[in-house]
Structure formats: structure tokens, C-alpha cells
Amino acid sequence: MKWIKKLFGKKENSSEEAGLKEINFEDLPAWLDSRSQKISSRVEKDVSGLLRELDASLLALKESNSRLAEARVEGDFDIRAVKRAKSNRENVTKQVTMLIDKVRVQENRDFKALESFYGAATQNLNTCLENMNRSFRYTRVVFPEESKGVSESLASVGRVFNALKEVILVNKKEMDAIEAANSVIKEINELSASIAAGEQELESRNRRIQILRAEASEASQALKDFKKGAVWQKLQNLEAEFSAAGEKLRKAEAGLNSLILPLSGHLSRIKKLHESGRYTLKPEVKRQLDICLEDPVKVDPSFFPELQKVFEDNALDMQTQKKEKALSQVKAAITGFPERKKEYLEALKEFETKKAEIEGFDTGKLVELERKEAELLSRAHLLEDDIEDSEKKLAALKEELEQKKENLLADVSSIDSNVKINF
Predict the structure, then answer these.
(1) What does the domain layout of the chain look like in residue ranges?
(2) Residue 400's pLDDT band (boundaries 50, 70, 90)?
(3) How many other CB atoms are there within 10 angstroms of residue 354's CB atom?
(4) pTM score, two decimals?
(5) How many contiguous H segments (helices) and E segments (strands) does the chain have?
């Protein structure tokens, strides 16, 4: 066919297209639109005759279908064959009518509309042929001429569709490339916008980090200055005095306990004898004995002379050697305990005094400076972590952007290999 030869032989070569062309990225959509319009115009021109032919073929199909529906039986046929032919004729004419109703000649003749029309029309034609194929075998036997007319009309419609398919195939590759390029352009614009927003956010975060670092440096310097002042020195001295008082208290308590601990085994023995009823202690002596075992520093010094009497009592069931040793330890306690308890109480008083002074010391300024420095540094670190994550995301977006640019170059090259895109 002449028009098919024309389509396959048609190639536009302007002086502009003969050499390399450079197109800015922002001008690419307009260039693609121009190419698309040219193809649609060319297709519209090429298919106008085909669509007129299709209209005529559909009209002829309608007429041949009507002739088949109205045909009378001519000839000598078995009554069963006639009955089958008539019932199947109804299906054939029904399917053809449905096809004619569904296939409407396309008024919108740009490429996409034409492609959509072709897809739907050929599907309807195939459905019609599939649904009527078996029935047609029976119909042809009794109504051969009318069936032949329908068959030829369907073939005519099919030929128009095949020709339409050739027009679509000739232009489809470039139209698909144009559509793909437009889609990639949209993706590139979205990625570029995301990258720009990300870079702007990174700059903002870096500025915030610089501000936070500067404020943290000021807070750190204020803390250093505070630690050089009289208040800090006083606190340091107080803490040293408190530590020394604590050490003094520990030694005093250890000295006090050194007199009591050797007696603990004997005291436990006496407590068991008392509780078992084999020896009876005076109530006050029993109370002081319990205190001595639980918290030696709180025992009354008067307890030890009473304890000496207990060890000297012949009624106490204890070996002589152990009694003598216990009496020696008790006498040492009688002699040394009052002085050592006095030292302990003085050390405890001094410790409590220093503790109260530290607890009453106003450390608000110090705490505030330390808190402020820590908070500023923490915020800066969090922003740095966010920046690290954002930089990774930006790197991924930029990598994706480069891939999209390569895809766009491939699409445009398939349209016109002489085109170079300036991004």
C-alpha cells in the first residue's frame, strides 16, 4: 500500500537535525511536546483514510449481518441442520451487532487516543470471532452466501485494523520514548527539589551547630571563670575539710570498735546463756549488751563495770581461761572506752557540721553552668548525628539523580541521537 510505503520511507531531516543539537534541560519538555505533536499530526493524516475505510467496512458488515439475519432457507436440508443453523445464526448476528456497537470510529486522532482505540477495537473483534466461530460453522451450511458476506466484511474490518497496527508500530517506539522521557523529567525535577531542600536544611543545621558550639564555648569559659573565683575555692576547701572529717570519723569509729570487737564472742555466749535460762542478766545490763553487739558506738561506758561483775560471777558457766581473757579485755574497755567514745563523738560532730555546711552551700551557679554546657553540647551532637544521616540520604538522592539523567539521555537518544542535553 502506498501509504505504508510512505510511512516507512518518511524521514524528516532539517538542517538543524543534520548536526549535533544542544538542548537545555528546562527546554526539553517543550522539545518533546513538539516531537509528540508532529507524530500525532502525521498519524492523524495517515489514518484519516483508514478510518473512513473502517467506517465503510463497519457499514458493510452491518448490511451483510442484516442479510444473514433475514436470509431464508433455500435448498433441501435436513430439518435438524436447518434448526441448528437458525439457532446458531442468532448467536452470529448477535455477536456481530455487539461488535458494531462497540467499535465507533475515533474522532480524537492523536497517537495515544488512536493506540487506545486500536487496543479496544481489536480486543472486541477477537472476542466476536471467538464467540461466533463455532456457530458460524453451522450457519455456513444453510446460509452460505450470507455467511460469506459477513465473513468478508469481518475480514475487511480486520484488514483495516492491521493497517492501523502498522501505523501505530511505526511511531510507537518514539512515542513511548517521549512518554518515558517526560516521566523521567518529572522524577528529575522532584529529586532536584528534594536535594535542594536537603542541602538547604544541611546548611541551616550547620549554622545551628556553629551557634550551639559558640554558646557551649561561652558556657565552658564561664564555668572555668567560676572555678577560679572565691566561691569555688571555698567549696573546694569545704569539700577537702569534709573529706578529712570523714576520715577522722572513720578512724575514731575503728578505734572504738577495736575495744568492743574482741568481746563480741563472749557477749554472744552470755546472751545465749541468758536466753536459755542458765544465767540471768539484769534488764539494763541485757539492754546494753544488745546495744554493744548491734551498734558498739552507742553503748554506755557504765556497761563495762557491770560486765566485769558478770565475768567475775562464779555462776557464769565459762571456762576459767576464757573468763580471765574476757576480764582483761573488759578492763581495757573500762579504761579506754570513755576517751575513745569522746574522740568519736567529737569526730562525728565535726563531720556532721562539715556535711551541713556543704549541704547548705549554694551550688546553683555551678550546677546551672554545668547543665547549660552539657545541654548545648548534647544538642550539637544530636544535630551532628542528624547531619550524618541527612548526608547519607542526600548522597543516595544524588546517585539516583545521576541514574535518572542517564535514563533520560538514553530515551532522548532513541528519539534523536544528535541531541545533547545540558543539565
Answers:
(1) 23-184, 229-361
(2) very high
(3) 20
(4) 0.52
(5) 12, 2
